[in-house]
Amino acid sequence: MHGLGNDFVVIDAISQSISLTTVQIQEMANRHFGIGCDQLLLVEKPTSAQAEFRYRIFNADGGEVEQCGNGARCFALFVRQQGLTTNKLIAVETAGGLIELKVEGELVTVDMGEPDFQPQNLPFLVENPAESYNLMVNGAEYAIGAVSMGNPHAVMQVDDFDSVDIETLGKAIESHERFPNRVNAGFMQIINRREIRLRVFERGVGETQACGTGACAAVAVGRMSGLLDEAVTAHLTGGDLSIQWSGEGQDLLMTGPATTVFVGKININN
Question: Annotated catalytic residue: which of 37, 68, 74, 216?
Fold first, then answer.
């Protein structure tokens, strides 16, 4: 499946018993020798009475992460297509907290919860919370915003996102010592108060065609800096997402498409 080109292998772990090793996940994610994906998603039974499903996310390097917005939209489409639910409003448990998915025709709206700007919750090693932080990267100092959308994000405002050396700069930020659990690095160009362009170097993956939580994080940082309005269209390489956030104390909503590419079976060697 994919959400704006951010692609996933999605596995039903309710109707079948499955236990994957890191190496097996890496092999499936390999675009030359496996299926190929940015992340692998597992659909499981919930451990919380508040949720209908449990949603687990593994990056292409095999590491488990807390949240994935594009994956969440694919998750909602998958469980309905596979007959695991008929609900259009689906409560889902993730490592980053409870989220709510609303299926509306070809679009899915994800209630991502309230953005978390507390540095210790990313975690981000800094003494006090601030609107902006200076980060020394490859011998130069850059201003970033830092926020958790269930997973950690560093957001840098740029004049032209096409000219960013995202492979070098993104990788350096992702593994920066002040982010002990690594971080997703977003590069945001503000077009006007209702539109941004965005590229994201995802933790454990590299640059992807789109990053749902990255779009949410960028808009949250832009809103807190007073640069963006309540409703914003985020233009990513793979397409557009609609982000809406009223501000502090309110949940952030992300709306976009999800697409099934193919369904199949794979034999996993133990």
Answer: 68
- Tens-digit pLDDT profile for residues 199-219: 999 999 999 999 999 999 999
Q: Catalytic pick from 37, 74, 211, 216?
A: 211
- Residue 36, classed as helix, strand or coil, is coil
**pLDDT tens digits for range 141-170:** 999 999 999 999 999 999 998 899 999 999
The yes-or-no answer on residue 211 being catalytic is yes
Which fold, 2-113?
Diaminopimelate Epimerase; Chain A, domain 1 (3.10.310)
Phi and psi of 26, rounded to 5°?
-60, -40
Structural domain boundaries in the chain: 2-113, 119-249
Kind of pairing between the strands at 239-244 and 253-257 = antiparallel
3-state class (DSSP) for residue 40: strand
CATH architecture of 119-249: Roll (3.10)
- Model pTM? 0.93
